Amino acid sequence: MVKNQHIVQRMLLSNFSIDTSVDLDERQIWVYDKDIKKSYKKNLRKVPVIENYLTEEADDIITILEKECIPAIDNILEKECIICNKFDEETIGFNNFSIYRYIGFQIARSKKFRERLKELPAWQKSSLEEIVNYQSSFFTHSNNPAPTLDFSMGIMRYDESKKWIEGSKYLLNMEYFPSQVPFKSFDGRCIVLMDVTYPLLVINDSDMPFITNDAGLNWYFPIDRYSFSLSTLEGILESILTFPLSPRLCVYLCTQKSVMKWIKKSPEGRGLMLLTKEQTAIQTTNDVIINHANRYVYSNSELSIKDKRNAQVLD
Least enclosed by CB within 10 Å: which of 209, 225, 280, 300? Predict the structure, then answer.
């Protein structure tokens, strides 16, 4: 049976709609197609949809994960912070856990992930069906997603009962954050990112909106490469992944070392958030988002994806 599947959650992408006041089914979004070098408006229901992209079982699991994580994203959009004194400790834990888990499964289902997989020598002669089944297995298989990982920044352990993950900073227990989806293979990436980064929320107070793409985020592998450095008054923040939530808000996963230096010089009680009016920082983020798009870039503004400073990137 043919099934249309979204590869970026429509509820998340709706934050980048041209007009967020209209009904969800009627919303439109600006699209830039890197292949044909043209921008156009498109109904949100059709962006981005692929027939039978993953197995039906994997798609059903992703739908559950999206529904479980979106309340945390709504919290962040409303209060404009992830870890701060606007939330109680339980909500902070839920927000943090959900953001990392969302990023973990979004990477694993992205078209960019599939394209990189097909470039590996072991998969270059594989059929599309084999690749689809393998990518789907990240959501359908419950094999241990995180064997003992020894990083310079800490040790992560995963117990045999598959109920909790213990790390140098976090104790994630399914009793605290109940889920219909036990830890799956994609959670391994989530765990690695949690162990080496902190989530910084950048609040965009400039005239240039954040944009997003057909992966919903950007990342570098291996994880010790930085996508870019974010310059602030308190120092340099080294980011390995950016996850735009709206034209105003973007999550940056920054290295622990750079965050700890930044916190020491930051105003007390500010939390892990940064308000900026600097268009340079926003432009740098958008350039990275464009470069890491598989094909499509999305925005609430045509100007933001056809800006002259993006010309070399887009064309």
Answer: 225
